[in-house]
Design a protein that fits this description.
18% strand; Rossmann fold; 218 residues; alpha/beta
């Protein structure tokens, strides 16, 4: 069966760390495609004057440019087109209901996974998708430690602690090791604001578009 991964985020802006992580998970789980879904308005983040959130249409265009040439990666306008606050449960429901992915694999960082209990309808996420939890070298603990307390009873942890099964649905959660690339979107925004180079931190086409837009400039 064709398996689709879903990697959401603000992508403000997308950078090589995002792309490498998507590639690592796709290869580890033999995914045919990973959809990169920029949020319209992230409910857990607020962008102030010192940390601007680029318009959704721009961030989507950068993701499209970043994915060009890699048949395994594709941009999705699902959240930007929907507008408003972007909730993962709504996005996964839409993917399943439209038939775009029968049971996608939701890709999430270990730090965000620990906060899953505060997301909208967290218990409804696991009937909709399997989960791949990305962990960089040096991340403390293992998958069993990262499951939020409010969800812990819903899972059976495999020996070794790098996988879990959702008791009610049989859905899987797996920890996937990814390389440590010390790149962050906030660093890129700050470098642009200070007039410093972002070459080799983002795809070249994205670099040109960011600089031409002036969106992060001081």
């Amino acid at each position: 069966m064709t398996r689709i991964g879903v990697l959401g985020g603000t992508f403000n802006p997308i950078h090589l760390g995002h792309l490498r992580a998507a590639e690592e998970v796709a290869e580890a789980l033999d995914l045919s495609r990973v959809l990169l879904v920029p949020s319209a308005q992230p409910p857990h983040k607020s962008a102030g004057a010192g940390s601007p959130l680029a318009p959704g249409t721009l961030r989507l265009a950068w993701v499209e440019a970043a994915c060009a040439g890699n048949p395994r990666l594709a941009a999705s306008d699902l959240e930007v087109a929907r507008g408003g606050a972007s909730y993962t449960v709504d996005t996964l429901r839409a993917l399943v209901e439209t038939g775009a992915a029968a049971r996608p694999v939701f890709i999430i960082g270990s730090d965000a996974f620990t906060e899953l209990g505060s997301w909208r309808e967290p218990k409804q996420l696991f009937p909709l998708a399997d989960f791949a939890v990305m962990a960089r070298p040096g991340t403390p603990g293992h998958l069993g430690d990262w499951i939020p307390d409010s969800l812990r009873a819903d899972f059976e942890i495999a020996p070794g602690g790098d996988a879990a099964r959702h008791r009610a649905t049989g859905g899987s959660v797996r920890a996937i090791a990814i390389p440590a690339l010390a790149i962050s979107s906030s660093e890129i925004r700050e470098r642009v604001r200070r007039g410093r180079s972002i070459r080799y931190l983002v795809p070249e086409a994205v670099r040109r578009d960011i600089e031409a837009s002036g969106v992060y400039a001081s």
